Structure of Aldo/keto reductase family protein:
Amino acid sequence: MEFRYLGNSGFKISEITFGNWLTHGSQVENDTATACVRAALDAGISTFDTADVYANTAAETVLGNALNGERRESLEILTKVFGPTGPKGHNDLGLSRKHITESINGSLRRLQTDYVDLYQAHRYDFETPLEETMQAFADIVRQGKALYIGVSEWTAEQIRNGHTLAKDLGFQLISNQPQYSMLWRVIESEVVPASEELGLSQIVWSPMAQGVLSGKYQPGKPAPEGSRATDTKGGAQMIKRWMSNEVLTGVQKLKPIAEEAGLTMAQLSIAWVLQNQNVASAIIGASRPEQVAANVAASGVKLDQEIMDKIDTAIGSLAERDPARTKDSSPATREA
């Protein structure tokens, strides 16, 4: 496992982050989830990402239990705030001072820790003044409940505004957590340049495009039983944008490229996002422990320009590049 600095800070995280979105507390049993966390630790992963909204707080509880007994100083625990939790009442979501303050306390309790290494604004809140949000984050840092602050799926303009306020309040934004893969490249034209300028890194989610880039979904054939595309608890909804025959046919063109590089298609997709120097880490999930060890092999892989060019040719116009799609990811209203 290799490690990279997160933004303009002295804080390092593992190139591969273990995330428990869509799995822990919902898709897989707790014993299996714990086994996946153990496999991540055994593979050298030290960074774990979750959020209070995952499985309505259950994912944080599962992760806290799985990491119980580990040396806290050897771990980087990341969580997020924004989405509706609990009974999902009128103040149970967003980035108000009230919700942030209550959420960090709940997250610490469920994660069984006194602090999180990185606390992230899961989306941008259009209904709360940014000054209120950033002041709440500043207070949490001063209280020692979070060591660093990041954002997730913020536009370049939102990152710039947040960075300015954070600097005025005596702390810094050091990361953004966007979707990024061969098929989803919307951060490249605006978010990445702004982040490089301001000292933020990307911690990217869905580097395998919900598993589509693993090559297991074949055009014109039913999805494998037990795969994300057959999951009725949320997985199928998330992956459906990639399930057209056009996309699946294009993805199959990556198979000989992966073989040339000596990688599986899944490893190739993870290694690809890590070639972007503004990416500090790629988040992987797992429903089986053996998936973790296989995907960790992407850490440290260097893809030459010829391989990168072949990937671009294979994917071509299938990749989404419109930077406006980032703004679309945050809800316009905070209605639960």
About this structure: The CA atoms of residues 257 and 307 lie 7 Å apart. The longest strand covers residues 76-81. The domain at 3-328 is CATH 3.20.20.100 (TIM Barrel).
